[in-house]
Amino acid sequence: MNSRLFNHIPIKNLSGVGPALEQKLHKLGLNTIQDLLLHFPFRYENRALTSKIADVKVGQHISIEGEIVQKQIIAGRRKMLVCTLSDGTGLANLRFMYFNVGIQNSLRQGEWVRAYGEIKQGKRGVEIIHPQYQLIRHQASLQTDDGQLTPVYPTTEGMTQTVLRKLITQALLLLKRNQPEEILPTNLMQAMPDIVTALSTIHQPPVDIDPALIDSGEHPAQKRLIFEELLAYQLSMQLTKNYNQDQQAYPLIASQKLISPFLAQLPFSLTDAQKRVTEEIEQDLKYPVPMMRLVQGDVGSGKTMVAAMAALMAIENGKQVVLMAPTEILAEQHYLNFKKWFEPLNITLDWVSGRLQGKAKQAQFDAITRGEITMIIGTHAIFYDKAQFADLALVIIDEQHRFGVNQRLSLWQKGVKNERCPHQLIMTATPIPRTLAMTIYADLAISIIDELPPGRTPITTVVIANTRRLEIIERVKQACKHGSQVYWVCTLVEESETLDAQAAENLAQELQAYLAPINVGLIHGRMKPAEKQQIMQSFKDNQIQLLVATTVIEVGVDVSNASLMIIENAERLGLSQLHQLRGRVGRGSAVSHCVLLYQAPLSKTAQSRLQVMRDSNDGFVIAQKDMEIRGIGEILGTKQIGTADFKVVDLVRDQHLIGQIQRVSHYLLDHHPQSARQLVDCWLPDREKYINA
Ligand code: ADP
Ligand code: MG
Q1: What is the CB < 6 Å shell around ligand 1?
Q2: Closest atom of ligand 1 relative to the 304 alpha carbon
Q3: Which residues surround ligand 2, an ion (CB under 5 A)?
């Protein structure tokens, strides 16, 4: 396929790129000409804008011009070259810490110089340290250099802006010489410049460009790029979906022979929402095409039950099922639940724990390969391990937002055997607005569990400064005295299990000292699974009244007698995570409370975020607010679709485009499939392997 932005030309073909520079460019993810063209500046400098020296302000990035009226080499710990410029309105110093003889000789007294850089306040007046500079004849030539703003690119150590600019200029020249054909429908083009113009404008904008337009992403050149990138994303999802629909899967017809006894043994009946979603899954599974369905449902809405129903449909057909969770502790919880439900039905199941090693692990894998284990539960490590399945027909992924899109697709491909793809069910507690969901999950069918099981009482949340800790401890004491159980969640800034564990341990000791004879338990990610299991069991059995925990309890833990939760350093956690944590209480009929402790002072943003938690128990509302406050990337995790995945698109800012993007996407796929692939190839080259039919 002809690559429109030279994805096939390695960067080393450009002049000036030797092996050392090539290495550095690779570090920045720049391997081809296309990578360079799509490496966008994050800001611009206006070097043409010169200021009178008298008018400069400290902190400004600006050019000044003047005559060198004094030049000194100042001796000290480090030798410095200082030139004093005068433009008749004032004096400014140019200070060089590193200089060679060439620089020293060129900057002679009486020469005129234009210098660009950040204005600083020096001891002897304003100065620029290490300015970019050029000699000019005299005032008459004080024009702009080339009438362009100067782009500033993301870079890495040892690579200067000048080098990047030169390479990108070469890439642009190549592009201009080879004008690629237009691939967007012509009727759209009236509103947008072609790709060459768009890229040239972004890399080398004219000085008179409207900075407000650029800042808001409203410039036509940006619009073109945004449109392309969003369209490419939509196309890639659509192509993935089409690819998926061309694959084969085992049709699974629910016979009810396991489902009926399963439902009969439950102490409750399914909610209407659970029934509806189960029905949607049943409809998908009937066909010999892999299901790709996402189930959205707030914390506590009973997604696990839906997963169990789907698993039973596969097992009724004699097939294997894998259930994957993001953490070991959640995998373990699922294992315990499914064991309770499935063993009475004579279904063999096992937990593939990351801790299982050597022979024991091999024996387990062999049993999976021989088909002796029907229901396999574990973290995504299951797929990185070399487990071979006898007859895998369904993969269930819990808490999808922790997996990236590419990760999910690659997991799925590993489940393919004998040309048969497993069906896929993805469960997430992160609700996102419908229009966004249509883009982000465009390759998936979506089911929503929009109802909580009956008998839940809303959780009351308060936000309290850490300084009132003693009061809170007293409150914990009272709660325990009245027979209820408490979680105390301890978090750190560092993403370190070891430090988290240490902090939790200290806290547990401190609280035990205050609260005896109340029993304080401790659970964290560094404990052995058996140990964790035992602690959780003691908490369930009410032998432990207060459980100090790290965020490992975020998901999967289910103790209905727990009705108070304290979360420390709440301001440091994401709202969705707080909501997940808080969802551990409010599972019984007692009124539950959540105390969000924070370290004062709180920033404005932190204040409004915690207020959202106080005011709402609705995961959907919380996600919406979180998105407004922090942007979509933060909510879903940059891995999945954060800003890191998009170069120019801002999903919240650009969501009004989604309807149009969808129409154009269908049009291109129907009438110009080559163009569609070229677009994906440009913007999402990694996606290639998942869409190649
Ligand atoms: P989540 O959607 O957060 O994964 P879970 O599947 O963990 O929720 O379910 C939360 C709790 O609700 C569990 O204790 C589960 O047994 C219970 N539950 C699920 N479905 C129902 C139902 N239909 N009626 C009553 N309780 C239910
Ligand atoms: Mg769950």
Answers
A1: 268, 270-271, 274, 297, 299-305, 429, 453, 558, 587
A2: 6
A3: 303
Q: Which residue is closest in CA terms to ligand 1's atom 9?
A: 302
Residue among 268, 305, 336 whose CB has most ligand 1 atoms within 8 A, to mutate? 305
Query: Could you report the per-residue pLDDT of 547-592, keeping only the tens digit for each?
Result: 999 876 655 567 889 999 999 989 888 887 788 889 888 887 788 9
DSSP string over 1-13 = ---TT-TTSBGGG
Alpha carbon distance 180, 505 (integer Å): 62
Distance from residue 654's CA to the centre of ligand 2 (Å) = 31
118 CA to centre of ligand 2 in angstroms: 52
Looking at every residue in the chain, the average pLDDT score rounds to 86
Ligand 1 midpoint to CA 563 (Å): 16
CA proximity to 577, closest of 285, 221, 327, 219: 327
Mutate to test the pocket of ligand 1, among 272, 301, 335, 456 (most ligand atoms within 8 A of CB): 301
As given in the structure block, the two tokens for residue 322 are: 């894998």
Over residues 287-327, the pLDDT tens digits come to 999 999 999 988 889 999 999 999 999 999 999 999 998 77
Q: pLDDT tens digits for 612-660?
A: 999 998 887 887 787 777 665 554 543 333 334 688 988 777 888 888 9
| C-alpha 449 to ligand 2 mean position (Å) | 12
Report the amino acid identity of residue 606: A
The domain defined by 49-143 carries CATH number 3.40.50.720 = no
What CATH number does domain 459-616 carry, 3.40.50.970, 3.40.50.300, 3.40.50.1000, 3.10.180.10?
Answer: 3.40.50.300
Relative to beta strand 61-74, strand 50-51 is parallel
Q: What is the per-residue burial (b if ≥16 Cβ within 10 Å, else e) of 340-378?
A: ebbeeeebebbbbbeebeeeebeebbeebeeeebbbbbb
Q: Where in the chain is the domain with CATH 3.40.50.300?
A: 259-449, 459-616
Question: What are the residues whose beta carbons fall under 8 Å from the beta carbon of 144, sequence distance 6 or more?
Answer: 47, 48, 207
- Which residue lies with its CA nearest to atom 15 of ligand 1? 302
Reply yes or no: is the peptide bond before residue 180 cis, omega within 30 of 0.
no
CATH topology assigned to domain 259-449: Rossmann fold (3.40.50)
658-671 and 673-683 helices, crossing angle to 10°: 130
| Neighbour count for residue 129 (Cβ, 10 Å) | 15
Q: Where in the chain is the domain with CATH 2.40.50.140?
A: 49-143
Phi-psi region of 496 (alpha: psi -120 to 50; beta: other; left: phi over 0): beta
Q: How far is CA 449 from CA 70, 301, 437, 619, 623, in A?
A: 76, 7, 15, 12, 16
How far out from the chain centre does Cα 217 lie?
21
